[in-house]
User: Fold these one by one.
Assistant:
Number 1:
Amino acid sequence: MFIEQPPWFYRVLFPGVIWRRPAAEKCVYLTFDDGPIPEVTPWVLDLLDQYGVKATFFCVGENVYKHPEIYQMVLDRGHRVGNHTYNHIQGIRFWTKNYVANTEKAAALIDSPLFRPPHGHMRRPQILRLRDKYKIIMWDVVTRDYSPHMTPNGVFNVVRKYTRNGSVIVFHDSLKAEQNMKEALPRSIEWLLQQGYEFRLFDFP
Ligand SMILES: [Zn+2]
């Protein structure tokens, strides 16, 4: 439970970041981390088109550098992008200066006011440095599609169990998540639509 839906006492350790959008309306914010890669991202884009759903892709700078045409596809299909650092680095392992520099290196390729820290970890000085320039987007539901201990059914059940109004939901367009995600994502989208959730993009400028 702690992982799938971070509790309030964890959330307050990260001042000024977004975990969930206001709960007044029946809507969700679908997000994908760690792409773009040719093996998985185009598959996700086709699926989202089938359902007419828009999402936000938190891209790793190095992947954008290697696969600019896939990155461009994400934008051309009407989705939003966010910065997920250049090398998918973990805040607790880096000095703030180097963490910010790695994020800025990614920002040269990814034009976005949105940032999501890899692994969901940042040290406080890193938050304070980055939050002036970025909206830092965490999540309300992480599907754990990347976990070798999860099954597609388990991933789908995380979505069913934890999604609520305003949830920011995380999937991954990565090789690690591919198998779970490809089966659980269509089922999740169908279930969310049946429940009456509207899919939204972040309205931060
Ligand atoms: Zn990541």
Number 2:
Amino acid sequence: MNQQVSTSTLADTIARPETTIKVKEQPLLSVQNLSKLYAPGKGFSEVSFELYPGEVLGIVGESGSGKSTLLQAISGRLAPDEGEVLYLRGSADSQLQQVVSLYRMAESQRRQLLRTDWGVVHQHPLDGLRPRVSAGGNIGERLMAVGQRHYGSIREQALQWLQDVEIPVDRIDDMPVTFSGGMQQRLQIARNLVTHPKLIFMDEPTGGLDVSVQARLLDLLRRLVSELGLAVVIVTHDLAVARLLAHRLMVMKQSRVVETGLTDQVLDDPQHPYTQLLVSSVLQS
Ligand SMILES: Nc1ncnc2c1ncn2[C@@H]1O[C@H](COP(=O)(O)OP(=O)(O)OP(=O)(O)O)[C@@H](O)[C@H]1O
Ligand SMILES: [Mg+2]
């Protein structure tokens, strides 16, 4: 079988992801046999994977299969029932790297990682924004959290990022509650990328965006992945987005990973009946 998932307009705008992944010796994130069940079948079970710098892992699957719950657990925001999440802290250049276990460290240290090393783009944009702080303030706050203090420079970077995610710069002093859902989503992405994190977790980041804005945003993300070695875990319903951005895919159904592999492999030659159904339903739509 050699099916192609239609990427129509997006494919015209963006080139495909690099096929070579720069694999460094140690994974940035190592998820080992992780489970979190709120009730039988509600959550996720026995998930394991490794993520390297500059690598994009896509998570797709049916609604309610546990994708958001998994993202919460691997980003240090929801303690699992079982398993380990290991993170390689520190910079390769400084030679001061250390593998830390997310749920064995103090909560304050985990929070610190979320401020300095990671970004989280939430499925519902207002969950990831301060609704009553200005757009510029939402971005500036992240820069201050990593130690920047120069007001002029912070405002300059906020303006640049508003431009990058296509929010009119004259909205810099407006509150996110006055923005459309798509603008809130783009602001959330800007807030998370401004500090150039090493790892970003994204839950349906392109939901609610029109196709052309979505294409340019994906292009921006792909540049950050290749230029800065940004690692990404992205949950998406959109197989076209998964094909364009993800190097590897994990498919979830009923709290379990049913298939995993290189994106092209999974989408062009799906092995599990659920993945076959997912791919063929996109081809027919
Ligand atoms: N805080 C919670 N308490 C109890 N059950 C929860 C909680 N959060 C999620 N669930 C349940 O866990 C299951 C997985 O939810 P989750 O949000 O992870 O699914 P999902 O794959 O992200 O779905 P979608 O694609 O619709 O966003 C669902 O049955 C959901 O109702
Ligand atoms: Mg979800």
